[in-house]
């Protein structure tokens, strides 16, 4: 920039982009002083080097503002994890589904893991059925990003929020309906089924 340019002759470009031709460095500096602009080397490896007249302070300021604006638009996506078992009860499943729904509405991705123990690993269809049920229940607010996949003793599925869900989630989060109270013991409820 300005006095730091070491070349004897340079290709000079005006602030509006007009090429002024090849000039001696002192002549180019005079052009810059008359226009009250800085000379900035934009292509030092060219033969002769290319120099542009510009307000360098304003240029740096605009670049910094553009970088800040890009940072503001950047979206941080967190991956939250929910773990389930293949023999999960309905109430526990509904609770976990509520957690997944809250994460999706918050704009986070959700990694749903089903952990198999012992002989359960011989029945991966149960785990896949459970994951599909969860995906169907949350179809309005989330989509499957990674299909259910068996990885050792775990089956993993990743869900991502739909764009509409994030906008609705900002407005108001719906409250889950309370479940009806159960009466009687476990055996009585089993006998009624």
UniProtKB/TrEMBL annotation:
HAMAP family: IF_3 (MF_00080). Residues 77-162 form the Translation initiation factor 3 C-terminal domain. Pfam families: IF3_C, IF3_N. One of its GO terms (cellular component) is membrane. Monomer. IF-3 binds to the 30S ribosomal subunit and shifts the equilibrium between 70S ribosomes and their 50S and 30S subunits in favor of the free subunits, thus enhancing the availability of 30S subunits on which protein synthesis initiation begins. Residues 1-69 form the Translation initiation factor 3 N-terminal domain. One of its GO terms (biological process) is ribosome disassembly. This is Translation initiation factor IF-3. The keyword Cytoplasm applies. GO terms for molecular function: ribosome binding; translation initiation factor activity. Belongs to the IF-3 family. Residues 161-193 are annotated as: Disordered. It is found in: Cytoplasm. It comes from the Bacteria. Its main location: cytoplasm. InterPro entries: T_IF-3_C_sf, T_IF-3_N_sf, Translation_initiation_fac3_CS, Translation_initiation_fac_3, Translation_initiation_fac_3_C, Translation_initiation_fac_3_N. Keywords: Cytoplasm, Initiation factor, Protein biosynthesis. SUPFAM superfamilies: Translation initiation factor IF3, C-terminal domain, Translation initiation factor IF3, N-terminal domain.
